[in-house]
Amino acid sequence: MTGQLHVAEHSAAVRAPVPDTRRAGRDRRRRTAAWRRTGFGLLVTAIVTISLFPFLWILRTSLMSSQEFAQGVTGFLPKHFTLSSYADNLSDQNFLRPLLNSILICLVSTVLSVVCATLAGYALSRLRVRGAGVVLGFVLFAGFFPVLAMVGPLFLVYRELQLLDSPAGLVLAYMVYTLPIATWLLKSFFDQVPRSLEEAAMVDGASRLQVLWRIVVPVAMPAVFTSAIISFILAWNDFAFATSFLQTPERFTAPLAIVNLGQSQFQVFYNRIDAAVVLITLPVVLLVLFAQRRIVSGLTAGAVK
Prior knowledge:
By secondary structure, the chain is mainly α. It is built from 15 helices and no strands.
């Protein structure tokens, strides 16, 4: 009888459900991964909100009328949305001329920077130049050199060359700090282009420059496009060189012209100033949004062999 009891207890123990440790571990990992994704999403949301809040506040102020702004009305949204500040800037304040000046100067400096950077980057990548590493290191050093430290020497040089208060002088100044980063980016991409493409073209009788412009540049178009966008943005956002070298209001660029906007004898209308800030920010935002894929491909194409 006792033996039968032991056998029954053993059978019951065998039939008892064994806890599934593997399933518990998978559930635990899933919960941990879900918490991590949630935390990462909240962190990204907080960062994006903090980053966009100043621009949203500027946009909110630019949509207020001068009367509402003068009353000191508080609140996240204006009571009455109006585009009067934008109309005043483009008509009464003549902000359209500085915008056109900025577009022209930035386009010229961008084209010159990309052409010179293409030639310099290809030479450093393909030609046997003595001290190429030193030259590339100097280029990188020039790219990180403080802009304000270059204002004094450039001012003295421009005074001797009579380039002060001249768009040409501003174009050359912009090339000083757009050319290094464009050269470094294009040189890194040219290193990844197969030499067999160039050798095949040179066997067929093409010169080195023909190989560069007809074979290498089309292949490296993502990097060229990225260099152009970065150079344009750097030149578009400049204030230090413009305020140091320009004196005539008709030649002011957009960032420099904002200083004189919305100022009266007794009050500063920040709604007009913020409207001008929105006007000069939107082109850069739209450019980056429409070209973000090319920017990412250009920045990462030369990173992996």
